[in-house]
Each structure stands twice: as C-alpha cells, then as structure tokens.
C-alpha cells in the first residue's frame, strides 16, 4: 500500500492540510498533482517531498503527529472482513484494519496455518478496487513461511482463484527474516501490485533455530524484527498477522474471561466450561504483543454446546488482548 501522509517527514501543518483536503497517501498526492487546476499548496508540499524523500516518500526520519491527525487516520483506515464469523465478531464486526498488527498463538494443530490462508483469501477478495481488491487482480498477500507449514493442497482447497495473489517466501534462519523485513519495499516491487496483507508463520522459529542456547541474542533480534514489523504496518498501511509459537503446557487465559457466558451462534462468546479456559501463551513472552493491536489465541476444539469436542468440531478462539475491543472468546467451526 502507498505510504500514509502521517508518516512523511513534513511539518504537522502540512500533514493536517493534506488530511483535511482528502489526501491520505503519497499516491493521492501524486494523483492530485496530475489533475487540472493544481493547488499551489499541494505543489509546494510535493516539492518539499521530492527534496526530502525517495520516490515513494521513503525516509527514516522521525515524524511528530498531532493527536487530531492520528484520530483522523484511525477513522479513515479501511477494514476487510475475515469471512470467519467468530473472528469478525471478536474484532467488533469489522474484521482486520489496515495498519493493524495481530499476534496469533496456538498449539500445533490448532488451525494457525488454515487461518493464515483464509485471511489471505479474504484480503484479496474484499479490499476495494482502489486498494487492489474486489477482483481488480492487483492486490497481493505476502506469506512468509518460517516452518514449512505452507501446504499447496490446503492452499488450492481454500484459496481457489486467489492463488496468484499470494506470494510465498520460505525462511530458514533469523538473519533471512530480518533481511526480508528490512527490504520490504523491494519485496513489494518484486511481487507486483499492491500488498495489503503480510503474514509471518511462525515468527518464533527462525530465532529459536538460529540461537537455541543464546536467549539474549535471540531476544535482541526478535526486538529488531518487531520494530521492523511495526514500521511495515505503519508505512505501507497494511494488515500484519504474526503467528508465534506456543509454550508447552501453557495455562494462560484471557483477562476477565467470559468463559461462563453463553452463545450458540458461533459469532461471539460460546458457553465453554470454565475448567477448559486454558489458553496457549507465546514462548517469546510479550515481545510480539508489545507491537500488536490484537492478540488472538487458538486451540483445538473443546467445542461448545452445539459443537462437541472432536476432530470435526471446532477451533476455540479468544481475543486475549486488544487496544480496541473487549477481550472475549468463541469458536470457529472447521467447516466454516
């Protein structure tokens, strides 16, 4: 996605003028400068950008934003539905917001890879045409596979006509992941079209594989990767989903758990027994949750009153933390 004007190294007064006049991204500015009747203020800002940034507004300078501008940015950022009723319900009914970061943690076999593929499909099909979705054929999802979990068979079954819109990068070591994140501008150019979603599955593994006995080194590089991911989400205005590896025998549950509340619709809180309210926690501690807008936990179906625990039952899902919505839990039918 084109860079937001709020991240450009220009005065706050210029940023506010752009937002008030409908210019949200660098692409909007470029388009405005090609129209007849160009505004003198817009041309001045364009000239300022050409001397201080690269072709797409690339600059690492720190930018100060007013609270008003940040509120306007949040109000105008687009969402796309995940097509998973329970998950959309937990996310306020809006789905994923562009520019947000979602951490997903779950035990092996709890549906992380399937969820990642479904999100890729949802982004490709539902983003509006001006952002490359809606059948325009220009939007891309970047899927970074760190554990070899990407399944061509599952992708064919789930993605159907969206296969050509998902670019898969296989990562084996920590330095490879850092290099890919550091050069994300180049990644976007390589895959072609506009990138609307970045998925990293499983972000914990390259660091563990590279430094199994050096925790301090591992945490240092993870912090660097987290900073890069945060920058990518903000600069490119894309949704980012990072899957982290779960601790063994975790006992964490969502704060103020709604385990005793009931719903049989599958779109909100399910009446899962309180004794079963044990949720996986990331083996990396809070390194990823510090940059995340939402933290989601998955586990193999303990089910609900209408979905008994079985291989064909459901995945339980919990919104364990969010800067926007209350914590809650529900279930995802496997066939949904």
Structure overview:
It is a single chain. The strands form two sheets. The protein has an eight-stranded mixed β-sheet, sandwiched between helices. Helices cover 34% and strands 18% of the residues. Mean pLDDT is 76; it is low at 53-61, 131-137, 250-276 and 304-312. It is of the alpha/beta class. The protein has eleven helices and ten strands. Helix 6 packs parallel to helix 7 (152-159) and helix 8 runs parallel beside helix 11.
Helix content: 25-40%
Helix-strand category: alpha/beta
Summarize the biggest pleated sheet: 8 strands, mixed
Residue share in β-strands: 15-25%
Alpha plus pi helix count:
11
Strand order of the largest sheet: 5-4-6-7-3-8-9-10
Distance between the first and last residues' Cα = 29 Å
Please count the beta strands (DSSP E, at least 2 residues each). Answer: 10
Give unreliable regions as ranges. 53-61, 131-137, 250-276, 304-312
Order of helices and strands: HHHHEHEEHEHEHHEHHEEEE
Radius of gyration: 21 Å
The overall pLDDT average reads 76
- Outline type: globular
